[in-house]
Amino acid sequence: MRIEYDRDTCIGMFQCVAEWDEFERDEDAGKAVLADSEETDDGVFVREVPDGAELDAKFAARSCPVDAIAVYDDDGEQLIP
């Protein structure tokens, strides 16, 4: 499972931080940070979801009020927009 986070879309509500500890607050930028992620050419941060953290990652994505977080299964199908 893979999670993608569009930091430019983030409005800093930090609801994802409350749902999954892999999201952290960046108070200076007013945005969340996805730990251990890599930035793609289009500015999206991507990482694999560790085994056992799938539910937390899904909750983090669902909690985002601006849909800045998406979750994909291993086949690349989007599970959470």
TrEMBL record:
<keyword id="KW-0249">Electron transport</keyword>
<protein>
    <recommendedName>
        <fullName>Ferredoxin</fullName>
    </recommendedName>
</protein>
<keyword id="KW-0408">Iron</keyword>
<keyword id="KW-0479">Metal-binding</keyword>
<dbReference type="GO" id="GO:0046872">
    <property type="term" value="F:metal ion binding"/>
</dbReference>
<dbReference type="InterPro" id="IPR051269">
    <property type="entry name" value="Fe-S_cluster_ET"/>
</dbReference>
<dbReference type="GO" id="GO:0051536">
    <property type="term" value="F:iron-sulfur cluster binding"/>
</dbReference>
<dbReference type="Pfam" id="PF13459">
    <property type="entry name" value="Fer4_15"/>
</dbReference>
<keyword id="KW-0813">Transport</keyword>
<keyword id="KW-0411">Iron-sulfur</keyword>
